[in-house]
Amino acid sequence: MNHFPCLALQSAIRGDMPRKQYLCSMKKNEPGTPAPLPIEAVGQDDPTAASRKRDHIELAFRSTVEEAKLDRRFHYEPLLSGHPAPGSFPPLRFLGKTLRIPLWVSSMTGGTEWARTINTNLAKACREFGMGMGLGSCRSLLYSDDTLPDFDVRDLIGEEQPLYANLGVAQLEQLIARGELARVTQLIARLRADGLIIHVNPLQEWLQPEGDRFRQPPLETIVQVLEQLPSLGIIVKEVGQGMGPESLRALLRLPLQAVDFAAGGGVNFALLELLRSDPALLDAFQPLAQVGHSAEEMADMVNRLIEEPGAELKCGQLIISGGVRNFLDGYYLTRKVRLPAVYGQASGLLRHARGEYEALRQYVETQVRGLEIAQAYLTIKSS
Ligand SMILES: Cc1cc2nc3c(=O)[nH]c(=O)nc-3n(C[C@H](O)[C@H](O)[C@H](O)COP(=O)(O)O)c2cc1C
Known about the structure:
Layout: H1 5-14, H2 19-25, H3 39-44, H4 49-59, E1 74-76, E2 92-94, E3 97-99, E4 103-105, H5 115-129, E5 132-134, H6 148-151, H7 154-157, E6 163-168, H8 169-177, H9 182-191, E7 195-199, H10 202-207, H11 218-228, E8 233-237, H12 245-252, E9 258-260, H13 269-276, H14 279-289, H15 295-305, E10 318-321, H16 327-336, E11 341-345, H17 347-353, H18 357-377, E12 378-380
Parallel strand pairs: 4-5, 4-11, 5-6, 6-7, 7-8, 8-9, 9-10, 10-11
Antiparallel strand pairs: 1-12, 2-3
Helix pairs in contact: 1-2, 5-18, 8-11, 13-14, 17-18
Flavin mononucleotide binds at residues 106-109, 136-137, 166, 199, 237, 239-240, 262, 266-267, 321-324, 345-348, 350.
């Protein structure tokens, strides 16, 4: 038993001593029980009390949150949980592996001088925190190994975490036309990847000065890949504008491992390509950057689609990404959708992944702590 009540109190708050044991330690007349401290001694036990109280008074007027700004997505239930222990978020099975947190690293391009640093940092974070990772477009690896070291992160991420290669649907259409789809299998083997993400980006390609043109609907190309490479695990995503209900319905009926929303609301590649091109084109086509679907809208679409009579779903997992700003958005969206889901971030992680690993580690750690507190006290309001 701890005979120093101040230490016992701190210990009880930190959680290393059960609160009940602490209260027992304070009971009067028990042999060996210290007498309660006089009030002034309790004050000494809390050395930051005076400055904290001063902070409270000074900051109170800057700390009002207007009713209109309340986050209405959740029920907040303060009575029903203790504080979560670090590491308490329940693991989940996803893509045949176990993730410790429902966070996915969305694909970001290789082929630049930063790619190796970024991919190295991201892979290390995936291993440390138990997340999955999509590589950026591996197009440059189809015909050469020059950039392989930028993408070759299997040893860093480990065998336990999902790692997916990435190609555009335009490249797959061309490979099929040339009878060269075996290059995809070789690519997956070289990267020791678990499968392939196909990105479908018609607006980006059309607006990109050096962009490709699709000769057939992307859906046909995806079906051909599934038929010709039946043992390859495939995920399909957009690149930041999401997709509407007909596209989603068609994808959910295919034997895909997952659909990744890559919704609108975050980085927008239609706008990005316009910013790279002629100002006259930017002026003319900027409205195209405003079309698309948010992740929340797509979650609602999925919930409706799975209720359709004869839905014939063959794909039962989702990566909810595109404009997901933080753990609270991710927690909300993964709880809202009625299929097993993780949430993905590209730019949100990129911001912390270009320099020292420690910056990314700290960012991801805050997100994990945030998920744990959300899980303890927040439930989703039913729509
Ligand atoms: C720098 C950068 C490069 C990207 N490169 C790819 C890519 O090669 N392949 C792909 O499928 N998506 C790519 N994306 C799109 C992202 O995977 C994601 O769908 C999009 O950025 C929206 O997510 P966000 O709002 O979290 O950034 C890239 C995004 C960024 C920011």
